[in-house]
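Note to self: user wants both folds in one dump. Writing first protein now.
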Amino acid sequence: MNCVVTAGPTFETLDNVRRLTNFSTGQLGTELANFLTTRGHTVTLLIGEQATYGGPSAAQNIERYTTTANLMEKLQLLAGQNIGAVFHAAAVSDFRFGKIWLRAPSGELSEIKSGKLSTRSGPLLAELVPTPKVIAGLRTWYPTARLVGWKFEVDGDGANALQAAEQQLQDCRTDACVANGPAYGTGFGLVTGAGRCTPLAGQSELFTALLALLELA
């Protein structure tokens, strides 16, 4: 089966030399792509330019992406290639920069633009604008594919994490969502519907469970 795996972080530019990104290394997505490849699947790995994981990558096709918009473009370009499954493990930046303001001593705000914002201006105020939800477009681009998303939750508890995963299934019409992060706790939860969660102790168990989803397709 032709599969797509996304991994690592997107970034959004502040100016020509500074970026907003996150701590994703790209390791889990890369190793999932390796696992699927060794099981006979043809894998395209879309990995963030800022991913720090340096381990081996066995995917047949590897492409680097930059911003959220760039990742969306690459996913749309792949949509016509008979893709059977998409595993969206990338950590997409939730925000991009909007306007940047300088506050005058009087308190008045003035918008500033520069290829490199100077620290000599003093403190600046940055507007953060939500980025488009990549996962929300997957069902439109891949109407017949198996779609798996991730939900990394920091605040709350396991119940909150599972609720967020179930909401993703409903909102984005995906087939499964992997819940993890400090809120979920140790390991992973593979959520396939309301009240349906398979607890998985570690990465090996997760990959095996994801492979089983492909065999149901």
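First done. Writing the second protein, which came from a different request thread.
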Amino acid sequence: MYLTKIRVNFFTKIFGFSLFIVLITILINYTFNAIFLEKFYIYRKKELMLKVIQNAKIIYETQSENSFENYIYDVKESMGIEVDIKNKKKNHMMGNHMMRRSDSIENIPYNKFVDKELLGNDAKILYYGEELSKDSGIFVSTSLSIIQAHSHESNIFNIMTALVALIVSLGAGLIFSKRITKDIGYLNEKADKISRLDFPKNIEINRNDEIGDLSRSLEKMSKELSTSVSNLKSFVSNASHELRTPIAVICTHATALLEHKEIEEKEKRKYYEIILKVGNEMKELIENLLTLSKLDSTVFKLKKENVNLRKIIEEALERYDIIELERDINVEISLVTENIIGDPRILKLVLNNLIQNALKYSIIGGSVKISQTLNCLVIENTFQGELGNEIEKLLQPFSRGRNAEDFKFDGMGLGLSIISKALNLASIKYEIEVDQNRFIVKLKILDN
């Protein structure tokens, strides 16, 4: 037997929580009233009685009888505390008014609070007395029945307060829940679009709370997913387009080797060399495509480290020294600043590609010069042919200049595209110039 899961809306939860808080508050209020209210009231009365008896003693001993009568009248009216004098020698020292309760205080000890119930009713009186002389004393008393008398009214007032609190909670919960559920519904709608690869913009809600944080996180996620999906589509499109030709070449030559068994050994070797060359080109293509995809990714985090620039340049020249030797290129390095701050991965990637391009596209017997001008690292090489207005085009993936096509240089047109993306990712400014037969790249990395 399956239990049906009941869906409780947000307003019901808020109102239920508010109701719980109100009921707990009322319960705590009743508990404190039952346990502590009477004790607190008696404590406060005792404090007042001590002050009154001290003042009464001073007035009784230093001022006139009329002043004393006025004082006890004022105390009774304002504080509900009565003052009595007990005198063993005189039964009416202060007149009949003062002796009306002499029987009540007859057996009350000095310097001790005593509560007594009056005969014939439920009234409870609190007494306290101090000795004036051997034969007389002063007493103060007050009724403790006021709490019991007003307990019914207090209960009614608490019930009314609870009802008002519930009504206010209902209204506040309704307004609050509508506001939140509206924003949550908005975010739910945007999340549903993202799940269908429809990436909305301006998701952020202007709120300084968890809902606002959620909206900002959702917008960030939307942007990163959009970039990742776009990069994936671009990668698949570029890879499928560029791999189609080399795969066809490999399949054609492999088929020829398989079907024509009478091919001479020299011809076979030629086929093998073509397959190996195309396979290496495919390997380089895939590595470059993966590099481009990685640079486009928002996951790539930059580093700031102390980097030896000369060491990176020398390692790049050593890596491509076969090109330098085959084309008889003269390389000249002139650096003043050797240590800079930057991301070593970006710098190695950029300089490897720039130096490879400089050596590859330089004329046979030409030169490559790596130097420093102010805050720029300058890499220039001689080349043949013309570029015209193709510099911007060279920065696009799979784009090659006319000189590369005319002189049949190996390559796929990804080098400068990788360089451009890497430099933009690291916020490194650069310039590409063509001066007569010299291709010049300036990188502003020496002040980073």
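Dump finished. Worth passing along: The domain at 305-443 is CATH 3.30.565.10 (Heat Shock Protein 90).
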